[in-house]
């Protein structure tokens, strides 16, 4: 299984909160997506999952183009980025001047802090992990190789579940754009749970 955050978007470059707003990739983001696809050429995927947001969908399209083959694609809003509520579209540095750097850090990196009218990472996990268990996990149990192209926070929430990351370690969990994270996973019949044999970050 491979988890991949989309390539750099326009609002990533402009240091804005993006959330559920559809923002295109930059030229750098497209280059990151193509490079990710080249790094993944040695792998064979059977199915791909992505969010309903254009930056993730375009990244996946470029990845498949670079890999040289296509797979069935499932698009689902459960994999959308965390919804940043009233912060969407606003510059992070400007918001820090208004609310203070520590508050903005909590909104961005903590597990439970919820921005005004938005989602906490905990809220995000409440939709991503059930989706993972009910759909993606079934493909993995059936022996399929799965590619998931999504977003920084939707992937953070899934990685928390996969790697059993404690809440106090979440602020240090960074997911760079366009960098494939490949897991060798298997289903432990006795424990009735997914286990990880190895993890590698392709650079």
UniProtKB/TrEMBL annotation:
SUPFAM superfamilies: Phosphoglycerate mutase-like (SSF53254). It is an enzyme of class 5 (isomerase). CDD domains: HP_PGM_like. Gene3D superfamilies: Phosphoglycerate mutase-like. GO terms for molecular function: phosphoglycerate mutase activity. It catalyses: (2R)-2-phosphoglycerate = (2R)-3-phosphoglycerate. One of its GO terms (biological process) is gluconeogenesis. The active site is at 6 (tele-phosphohistidine intermediate), 81 (proton donor/acceptor). It comes from the Archaea. Pathway: Carbohydrate degradation; glycolysis; pyruvate from D-glyceraldehyde 3-phosphate: step 3/5. Its EC number is 5.4.2.11. Substrate binds at residues 5-12, 18-19, 55, 81-84, 92, 108-109, 152-153. PANTHER family: PHOSPHOGLYCERATE MUTASE. Belongs to the phosphoglycerate mutase family. BPG-dependent PGAM subfamily. Catalyzes the interconversion of 2-phosphoglycerate and 3-phosphoglycerate. This is 2,3-bisphosphoglycerate-dependent phosphoglycerate mutase. The lineage of its organism: Archaea, Thermoproteota, Thermoprotei, Acidilobales, Acidilobaceae. The gene is gpmA.
